[in-house]
Structures are given as structure tokens and as C-alpha cells.
Amino acid sequence: MSTPGVTPLGKIMKDKGRHSDYEQFDYGVLKEKGLPQGISKLDDSFKGPQNIDPSKLDYSDSSYITTSQPCRYDANGNATGVEGETTECLIRGSIKRIIASTPGIGSPPPRPPSIKYRIVDTHNKGLGVFATEDIAAGELILAERPIMIVPANMPSLRGKELAGMSSSQVKQVELADSEVIAASAVDRLQPHRKEAFFKLANSHLHDGSGPIIGRIRTNGFGQDWVGKSDVQDMYCIVCDEGSRLNHSCSPNSQQKFDVRTFSMQFRAVRPIKKGEEITYSYCDVHEVASVRAQKLVRYDVVCDCKACANPTTSDPNRLKAQEWIQRMKSCRFADFSLPTSTTVSLLLTGLRLFESEGLESMLTFGQILFTLMKTYAAKGDVENTQVYARRYNKWLLASMGDCFEEDDVENAFGLVASARLVQGMKGMWTSGGARKAKKAGKS
Ligand SMILES: [Zn+2]
């Protein structure tokens, strides 16, 4: 018997085996819509609980629960004592424990010092977010409490009922059942949040997705909660304003979910000019245009960014970016087997490639910045070590949502001190060599 108010969904999901990633949640277009003959709509008893005890932590790892995470602060971070923007969560017991045991959970979300964006009609791709002022790299653009968090994949609860069905019919059942399950979170939304949710775009109108799952699939940000590839830990985070950011293959912003403040935060990965559209990527940006186009079909996106408009120029660069991913994985430049001047020159070439393609959001870009800082330190080039320590620190902020204080950057990575040491040693060598040369001249 299951715990009252707890859906035994997880157990069934376990039986389904492992899925590689969030992108597996792609059913394509189904020939038949609705439930196959003889299968009735999921019973209400499968829905999540309506009221759980917020202080109770020991829900089973293999069970899903619905729970609310209220925000009791105003826009200035002052405590209001009332529930403001609440996030509805459909999560497993293990994730609830992670959330509840996070130090400082429920802290006020950070707010940008001023709002530098507006949401307007783009005329060709629905609403979009545009900068109303220049925005610096690393700057917080927008932070919001998500509308809801739901599993990225919700296989059917039917078990033996699915025996003998075709894969297409199983998908029909999964889509129909996940619509009912997700509704348990949507039903609990505050009225204004529910309204915001249903105002979101739905690009899954013709593939068998219901209005709820369609919106989740269109707008959800993938969140691998505990860093495992097990599909049970993959969630979709649906935002209100954040979900209005359109796609670009050269995105100028990066998003990160912060559990402590329970907020989705969007930061600039490079300087953004006033009037420029603020974008992030819905697919892997290192792929060539044709592969990206294929991945974007599910979002109903036909990308017209510079890289997609000029694949003959951009594709060779994206292939080079793929080489850089492998190169930085193998740490070829981190072992200093090459002369440092050669390493610096290669790294700067890589850096320019990523900048020219607008790929600053990639992990490899951060790795290049870090390795440059390290290599300049090994050369004893204090000035450039400082430059790249600051740039890497900003990249950390934009990508990870956290970084060292500006005053602390020099000490943070320990490399500026190393650069000074090497510089000092070089100086000693140079002055020692000069003395020797002087002596030789005298004799
Ligand atoms: Zn594009």
C-alpha cells in the first residue's frame, strides 16, 4: 500500500530502465491521438497529494509528491510573511530531502539592481526579451521563482496494461497519463501563476501532447538535480518571464537554478548592447547548422541567427569548436609540455574562435580562459594572469551563478602569486646571468 497522498510513480519509472538525458522526452509525431482503444483515462487516484506536511522529509525515493515552495519576500528582498510567488513541485522524496536540507533554503532570490529588459512581440517568433540598456558580462539580468518543477519524463503508470501494445500506442498512453499527472501540480498553482502558465507558448500542438505537457515540453529548462543521468533525477523547470527568452545558436545569456533561493537566474555571458535580444540556446551550440535545425524542430524553431544564416562560414568553426572540446578534455594544454608561448598562442586562437562564433556559454570557453590564466602564470606574466583571472571569474559567475569577490580574485586561484614568483625567479636568473657576463668581459 502506498503512503497516503503519494503517487507510486517512481516505482514504475524504475522498471522502465535508464534514459540518457532530457532529450529522450521527444515523442515525435504520433499517428494516432488520444488513448488506444480499450484504455481508459488515468484514474484520479493516481494524482499527487493535495496537502502534504511540509515538515515531513521521509517520503520514499521511489514516490512522487506534490509540494509548494513559497517565496515570502518582496522584490527588494524584504520579508513579507505572506506567500508570494509560489513554485509548485512534482518531485521524488529524495529530491524533497535535498531541497529541505539545503542550508539557507527559502532565502530571498537575488534581484538585479535595475531591470534592463522588456518583453515584446518579435513579430516572427512570438514574445521575446530585449535589453533596454547595455548589460555587462556576468551581470544578473533576471531572477525568478519558477512556476513549477516537474519530472522531465513521466512514463505510464499502467504496468501490465501496456503489454502487447505497439511503441506508438505506449507513447500515446504515456502522453495522456503524464498530462493527468502534471495536472496535479498545475491544479495547485496560484490563480495568477496558472494564468501565466497557460499564456506560455505551446509548440507541441500536433504530436499528441496535451495542453499542459505541450507547454512544459516547450518551456521547461532541464535540471539534473543530483548530477546523475538517471531519468528519475531529470526535471523540467518552467519559468514565467525566463521562459520568454528565445533561442539563439550564439546565445548571450546562461541560466542556472539556485536551490538555496529556489530561483532561476539568467546572466549575460558577454556584454549585451541596448536593443539586442537576450537569448539562450535550446540545443547544443557546438553542432553544425543542420544538426541544430533538427534538434530545434521539437520547439517549432526555425533559427535565423547569423550562424544558421551562413552555415558555410559558421559550420567549419563549429567543427573546430568540437575539436576544442576534445582538446580541453584531454588537458593537452594544462601539462605545459609545449613551450608556454606556443600554448598561449594556441589558446588565444581558440578564444577568438569561440568569441567570433558567440560560444561564450560553453564550458570549453571557460576551460580556455582558465588554462590561459594558468599558462600566463607559468610564464611569469603577472599582468595577463590578472586579466584572465578576472575574465574566468566573470565566466564562473555567468555560468555557475557564483564567483569570487572582485577583491579576492587575485588570491582566489592562487595563480597571480605563482606568476609573481616565476617573474621574481626570472629576474634573479636575468641579473645572475648579467653578472656572469660582466665577469666574463673583465677577464
Ligand atoms: Zn541558429
Automatic annotation (TrEMBL):
<feature type="domain" description="SET">
    <location>
        <begin position="113"/>
        <end position="283"/>
    </location>
</feature>
<dbReference type="InterPro" id="IPR001214">
    <property type="entry name" value="SET_dom"/>
</dbReference>
<dbReference type="InterPro" id="IPR053185">
    <property type="entry name" value="SET_domain_protein"/>
</dbReference>
<dbReference type="InterPro" id="IPR046341">
    <property type="entry name" value="SET_dom_sf"/>
</dbReference>
<feature type="region of interest" description="Disordered">
    <location>
        <begin position="41"/>
        <end position="60"/>
    </location>
</feature>
<protein>
    <recommendedName>
        <fullName>SET domain-containing protein</fullName>
    </recommendedName>
</protein>
<dbReference type="Pfam" id="PF00856">
    <property type="entry name" value="SET"/>
</dbReference>
